[in-house]
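Worked example 4.2. Below are the chains of a multi-component assembly; read each line carefully before continuing.
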Amino acid sequence: MEQALDVHRLQFAFTITFHYIFPQLTMGLALLLVYLKTKALRTNDEHYNRAARFWGRIFGINFAVGVVTGIPMEFQFGTNWAAFSRAAGGVIGQTLAMEGVFSFFLESSFLGLFLFGEKKLGRIGHWWSAFLVWLGSWLSGYFIVATNAWMQYPTGHRVDSHGQIELASFWSLLLNKWVLWQYAHTMLGAVQTGCFVMAAVGAFYLLTKRHESYGKTFVKGGVLVGVAAAILQLFPTGDAQGKLIADNQPVTLAAMEGLFETQRGAPLAILGQPDIQNHRLDNPIEIPSMLSFLTYKQWSANVRGLDAFPQDQWPDTIALLYYSYHVMVGLGTIFIAVMVLAVLMLWRRKLYDSRAMLWALMLCVPLPYIANTAGWMTAELGRQPWLIYGLMRTAHGVSPRVGAGNAWFTLIGFMGLYTVLGILWLFLVYREIEDGPEPDDFSHSEPAIAKAAD
Amino acid sequence: MGTIWFCLVAIMLTVYVLLDGFDLGAGAIHLLVAKTDQERRQVLASVGPVWDGNEVWLLASAGTLYFAFPVLYASGFSGFYLPLMIVLWLLILRGTSIEFRNHIISRVWDPLWDFLFCVSSLLLAIFFGAALANVVRGVPLDASGYFFEPLWTDFRLGEQTGILDWYTILVGVLALLVLVMHGALWVQMKTTGPVNSRSGKIAANSWWGALILTAAVTAITFRVQPQVQENFVTWPWGFVFPLLAIGGFAGVRFELVRRDERKAFFASCAYLTGMLTSVVFGLYPLVLPARNPVYSLTVANAKAADYGLKVGAVWWSLGILLATGYFTYVYRSFAGKVVVAKDQTHP
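Applying the procedure described above to all two chains together yields the following structure tokens:
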């Protein structure tokens, strides 16, 4: 790790991975808040308003950490990836600036009103503030995914004589064919995180026999929305993403699947460790011909393996890419199983009493975070060795004057700060869950009790 | 097209300073004006619902700078690597201080966040001032179009200077004083009781400090960056900007004496706008001056291609129009003096 390039990559990977813990929950929860506020509006039941306020508090904590860890992401394009920004800023700066102008203003303005202005806004106004927070956060997701999609599949640009990449078609950038599927797939991942967290908190309440009416609301909302998201995650969005990769990044597909040799009727590897030196998969468990079928809908189709491409085109961390992809797909499959089973039990009116299923829902809570992270790692490692696919290599995008020493300095700083931030975040969210949706009855933060404790 | 975007980015940054400036200033005086928990919650409530939106102006300005002047974004951000990272860390500390503080009431929890809120706001004000001074003073850009500055070297204005030298530190202190005044005027306008009177006093005192330093920094700046004098000589109408600053500054004093809290705050806004626009006017067409003028970044050599800038003008106008609408609505919703519950904490 003496090379500045490696440190810059590690810093970006670390800061983005930590950052994405928060928006995946807030984007998912934003939708569920609209669900709860809609329920409140239609049933006129204060229960749902209390539920929404409870999730609003958890949303607020996550949003705050998401905001403060998000600012470094935009800055790092310039600070650590200056050569990339210099060449491509005229294109990707468009979507990043649109995120600020169209979604952050919307989101931050109406979140303040959602959290602090319920009395002033009234029932309908408060519903609108929840809706606009949702809209802002999902727009923000769109602009970020559009930026990434352009790096995966550059389109709507032109390269001038100095090597500057300039925008040639605004709508091609914004409606890139890559972005539509990637966005749907990413947002469904966020919805799953929101649903699993909501269902897990509900299961926790039911298992500990506290706030049980809320526990039921949370479990029900979580699994009903979650089952739809889990299925759509695989099909059509996951499938369509795979097709795009097969068509446009075939070497990435080979590395993801651990397919070293080009073959007809290529098998799908379920398990097995890639041996990069000897170009093979150790102790593989495979489903024969499955990869050919999934990729081309033909059992005997020819799938190009890594051997079909020159080594300097291979992603530079094949093993990690292979595992990221397999973890994502494996977890996605588990999510479908858990959610379908939970919905069946809900339908048969057995869910709230099944301790086993409630335990399963509660223990699942870290898994969607891992799956979302693994999914992004698949996208980003799969794009290597390119920073902009086919246009600029990662090694050429780094800031030429920021050395490894200075990059280590800031990376260590971020690690320290984020460790503290992560601990505080867990602590505060756990406290909110402990306090529950009716803090008036249980809170230790209330004046009378605090005074008594003093 | 480049000049239009130069002006638009300048306007966005000015709005950022006016808005986030008052909550930074409020943070910097937090421990001075608010002694009890109830008083501290008054200060926090005066910025609580809006600080995040204010900070978005920084993000949106950075984004706009990125697509309109990609070459400047790349050279400037990588060259100012260390101070920008420190700014990021301070922004993280500050944001979490405001948001985490009120979740727990304890003798060890809220004093810690109050302290961090105060210190991070104070340092941010100094760093922003120093950053602006770096842009005015110029940086060691070379033929590659890049530079890198350490945090400091010998604190002198020479070939080997770092981010912090006596000039940039002086501007940093000026920025702190000015934002303390601006923030104190905001807090005064939004609060009642002892917090109100203490912040009024701080505003009045920092006014004198700002007066002396504004005069000194202005005089020095004309020597440090010759472009400024050149621009004011070439386009004398540019004197409207410093006149706005002087008018606003006098207005602050006048309204403080007359005890019109709202007008005093708006006079401070006029002063800040005048100061920033004067600097921007003085630098044009430079966007990042180099020690060797040959390598200076200008509007012409740092801007993106025209097509992107034209498309940007369409969506940017629409987006900013919407944002102005939200801000008007939000500030109206939270208008008037803040009211916080009586002491809800440890006796």
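Take a moment to check your reading of the output against the notes. Chain A touches chain B through 73 residues (CB under 8 Å). Chain A has a mean pLDDT of 92.
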